[in-house]
Amino acid sequence: DATAGSLINHSSSSSGSADDDEANRAGAAMGAAIRALLAHMAGSSEQAERTASYATLRRVLWLWSASARLDFVRDLITGCPFPNVVALLVHRLKEEHLKEATDRAAVEKHMPYTTNGVFNAAALIDAVETLLVVPSGAQQGGHAADPLDSLDAWMAALNLVRLLLTRAKPPAAAGSSADSEVSVFAALPAARVADLKKRRLEPLDRWVKARMDALWAEIAAAEARTDMPPGALQEMRMSFTHLHVAVDVAARTVECAAW
Questions:
Q1: Is the CB of residue 214 less than 8 Å from the CB of residue 146?
Q2: Given a cut of 50, is residue 182 above it in pLDDT?
Q3: Cα–Cα–Cα angle for 250, 251, 255, nearest 5°?
Q4: pLDDT tens track for 119-178
Q5: pTM for the full model?
Q6: HSE of 241, CA atoms in CB hemisphere, 13 A
């Protein structure tokens, strides 16, 4: 509700308490509608329904300016309880970043690293950084937290961060063939990249690798048992495959942060 209300206030110029009250009521109604839409996106068994819900969300987002859309999606990412929906929201940020870059490229291709767009690398990394945190309760109850519980969300975040790091990397020396591929977005400060790598990417990389190794040991122990429920071993192997892919993505993202 607060997010939707702030968007409405952001896009209007209310000058009195009556206008503010109306904006707050509209924000409350929109907040309820958005929560219902996100829940439907997360829970529907029909692909067509999920696709239609996402298309509706995109149309809602286009009602506001670029800066308001960024604030909206950032707040939704922070508060959404559905990892699969969070992944779609992160993908939306990627779409916005690439579209903005394309729209600006024709004008700014001769002025790289001099201006920032709304959906620039620094802003989007700030928006998704909270998804790249090793759970503080990883060892509560003697059990490791399962990265599969939020796999969709942080995999989407890692893929976006990898794209942003690659595009924002400082250009090669003048005259090299890489000059024509330089992003129109200002480069991320090296100190910001180093901090992201140390505080977020490397700890997450180590944690996921450790969880994959632990699951491999669990699979080996399960294979020696004769009382495993039907399908349980296959499910564990599938989870291991997912973690193996995740480990590769995390490692590649760390490599991209090595400027």
A1: no
A2: no
A3: 115
A4: 999 999 999 999 998 766 544 444 556 667 788 899 999 999 999 998 877 666 555 444
A5: 0.78
A6: 6
Measuring CA to CA, how many Å separate 238 from each of 210, 227, 241? Answer: 17, 19, 5
CA separation (Å) from 182 to 108, 153, 166, 179, 186? 11, 28, 10, 6, 10
71, amino acid identity? D
Alpha carbon distance 119, 99 (integer Å): 9
In terms of Cα–Cα distance, which of 156, 166, 195 is closest to 256?
166
CA distances from 13 to 6, 68, 83 (A): 12, 14, 35
What is the pLDDT confidence band of residue 30, given thresholds at 50, 70 and 90?
confident
Amino acid at 254: V
Q: How many other CB atoms are there within 10 angstroms of residue 248's CB atom?
A: 11
Average pLDDT, whole number, for the chain?
Answer: 80
